Each structure stands twice: as C-alpha cells, then as structure tokens.
Q: What sequence folds into this?
C-alpha cells in the first residue's frame, strides 16, 4: 500500500510495512508516572534548540574574531591574547575562557544527547515503518546530512583543536603565535588540510541551515508567508557564516595572508 505524507513543504512516497514488534518503547514512562521535562520530546527539543543557539553564538563570535587576521598579525594575536586574559584582574587569567570552554563542551554533549535520544525515540515509537522513496527535505538526505555531518563536524573540531589551539599537528607547534599557526596550518603545501576544512565547513553550513529551519518549525514560526522568509534567512545566514570562515584558509592559500 502506498500513501503520501506531508511534512511542511516536503512530500515523501511511502510503502506501509506491518510493524515487526508490539513491544512498547523502552523509554516510555511507566503507567501513572509523569516524565520530567527532560523525559519529554518537547523538553529534549528545547535542549537541542537552546544548546544549538549557544553554539551558533559561539560560531558568530569566532568567525568575526577570525576576520581580524585581515588586519594583520598584531591585531589577530592581540585579539587571541585578549580572549585569554578577558576579565583580569577581577578574575584570574583565563578564568572566563575556561568557563566558556566548559560551557561549549556541555552544549556540544547535550546537543548530541538530545539529537540521538530524539532520533531513537522517533524510531521506536513509529508504529508503521517506512520503505520510503523520499524526494525532498523530509527524506534521507536531511537525516544523513545531520547525522553524518554531525560526526564530521566533531572530527573536524578535534583536528582543529590539535592544529590551531594545541599545535600538536601544526608545523609551528604550540609555542608559535596564533597568527603563525594559522599561516603555517593552511600553507599551500598542506592543501589537504584546507580541503578538509572546506568539506567540514560545508557540513557546518548544511547542519546550521537545517537546524535553524527545524527550530523555526518547532517554535511554530514557519507559517504562511513567513515560511519562505525564514527558510531563506536560515540558508543566507549559514552561507554568510561559512564564507566568513572560509575566507581565512583561502586567503592563506592564495597568499593574501602570509
Ligand atoms: C577556517 C575556519 C576557522 C579558523 C581559521 C579557526 C581558527 C581558530 C584559531 C586560530 C583558534 C585558536 C585560538 C587561540 O588559541 O588563541 C581556534 C580555536 C577554536 N575553534 Fe576555530 N577556526 C575556524 C573554524 C572553526 C569552526 C567551524 C569551529 C566549530 C565548529 C571552531 C571551533 C573552535 C574551538 C572550539 C576552538 C577552541 C576555543 C578555545 O577554547 O580556546 N573553529 N580556531
């Protein structure tokens, strides 16, 4: 039997397959007990949206900070130094940066936890399995982009920290200035590093575009004429962020920053 499912602007052709198991979803609360906020799908969606928003704010700040490289080595290095010493002498050196780092790690962990648990819950709760020939947003393309894209972004961040924060995999090592590490890290001889950054940043862009769009839908904002506007906004925002980030490795590659 086939039918058409509407989800937002998306349509997907599905073939109904009888359920294989009658077991209740294991994370469904016992009868008579109400789940806490984090036990509900809406609670987990809220965690995903709030942590996603924290990460987006970090990305905006990080991208704008990176653009200082176009003002020269001194400007970029003093910005990096300011990040480490901000709040001094009211708080010990690096204190605010360390708090921000802990907040970022917590945001990433909670974001991944809510994404994985919501996906598992949706799979278990679905009474009818889809053997789908999907054509658009609602289909496998988005699921793959979000799931595998998320993994690529995580691997990228690990490489990125070893490269530009700790200097472990950077030709200049830990003791060089941040400017020198960036210039050495994206040297044309290491074109594969730049290629990896480009691939990872495209993933960041796609992840961001879909994540924002989903958040708008969850919040009930994406109705009527606003639908196209918000969709365009999510795509435009993601594109500007990615291009801002990419401008740095590309400028080093072509010798504008050296
Ligand atoms: C081409 C794009 C990027 C460049 C040139 C770049 C550059 C840098 C540099 C130079 C640092 C070290 C700052 C310092 O130690 O003073 C840094 C740190 C960091 N970057 Fe990036 N970054 C880029 C993209 C990204 C993206 C897309 C993400 C996240 C998805 C990211 C996440 C981080 C994190 C988490 C840190 C560590 C912050 C800290 O705790 O000190 N970066 N980046």
A:
């Amino acid at each position: 039997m086939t039918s058409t499912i509407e989800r937002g602007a998306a349509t997907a052709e599905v073939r109904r397959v009888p359920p294989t198991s009658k077991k209740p979803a294991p994370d469904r609360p016992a009868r008579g007990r109400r789940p806490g906020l984090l036990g509900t799908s809406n609670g987990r969606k809220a965690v995903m949206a709030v942590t996603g928003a924290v990460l987006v704010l970090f990305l905006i700040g990080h991208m704008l900070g990176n653009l200082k490289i176009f003002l020269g080595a001194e400007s970029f290095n003093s910005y990096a130094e300011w990040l480490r010493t901000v709040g001094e002498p009211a708080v010990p050196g690096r204190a605010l940066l360390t708090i921000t780092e802990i907040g970022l790690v917590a945001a990433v962990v909670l974001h991944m936890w809510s994404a994985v648990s919501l996906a598992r819950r949706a799979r278990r709760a679905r009474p009818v399995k889809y053997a789908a020939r999907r054509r658009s947003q609602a289909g496998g393309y988005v699921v793959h982009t979000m799931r595998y894209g998320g993994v690529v972004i995580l691997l990228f961040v690990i490489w990125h920290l070893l490269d530009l924060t700790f200097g472990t995999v950077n030709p200049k090592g830990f003791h060089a200035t941040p400017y020198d590490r960036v210039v050495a890290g994206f040297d044309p001889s290491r074109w594969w590093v730049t290629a990896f950054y480009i691939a990872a940043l495209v993933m960041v862009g796609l992840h961001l575009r879909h994540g924002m769009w989903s958040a708008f839908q969850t919040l009930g904002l994406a109705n009527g004429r606003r639908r196209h506007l918000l969709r365009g906004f999510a795509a435009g925002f993601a594109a500007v962020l990615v291009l801002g980030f990419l401008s740095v490795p590309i400028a080093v590659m072509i010798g504008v920053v050296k």
Summary: Strands lie at 2-7, 10-17, 129-130, 133-134.
